[in-house]
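pasting for the record
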Amino acid sequence: MKFITEFLLNLKHYGLEILPVLVLGFLLSGIFYELVPENIVKKYLIKKNYLTLFIIIIIGMILPICCIGSLPMAVGFRQKGVRLGNILAFLVATPATSVSSILITLKFFGVSFTLYLCLSVIILGFLIGLIGNFLDKTQQSFVDDKLPPTATEFLSKYIPKKTFKQKIFSSLRYAFIYLPKEIGGEILIGIVLASFISSLNIIKIFVENFLQGIYGYLFSVIFGVLMYICSTASVPLVYALNKQGLSIGPSLVLLILGPLTSYATLLVVKKEFGLKVFSIYLVTIILFSLFSGIIFELI
């Protein structure tokens, strides 16, 4: 009975926390998909260069949107033909940090830790972006400007352009009808699973008994993957674990890994980009977070 009560409370908490950013993410995705001119998308987002990747990472780090809110935007980007690596970099940078989480991290862990965390996110974004663009190149899934126009593109030149009012309705239809059908189920499953894991007492047992040496890193990987914790909310939680005995390396691993591996994100990545990309995405994040945590603890 106690577990059910805690589960329902956690489910309510996640629902209240996620719903506003999810609506915002859907809305921004709809606006992007319908109102942003195609030539702007092709000019700035489809490019495969280091500057574009860096800009996407910085924008993702600044946006006040968690992983749930970034998912519909990422799907919208993909619908517009944005490169896979750019999308994966966006999915890494957006939930990993935010202005609020950076300020809280600065207060709890200090300047050097905060700067190292931000640098780690930038490097991880670059790494996952380069890998994603390489995979996308081998799959030849992008629209090439040199290819002849499709029948739809040819006929679209002779179709009357939409009025501003029609564009508004079209963007809202895409945001709140198409996207919920496309990824709504995965997001709902992710919220339920996160609430279930949040209601277990096994986390407390690990904290009390198995947080020394390699077990601290093992704990951070397991807890980070199984538990959805947004970047802002994770900081005081990780700080408390650090005070209870979790060393600084595993603490950094948890701050990087936790926000990036929510069930909703992993399910959507698997559905939209396939099992191969999903596997590489997850393994790269885990290995890099471990490497980053170990290096910071050593220095």
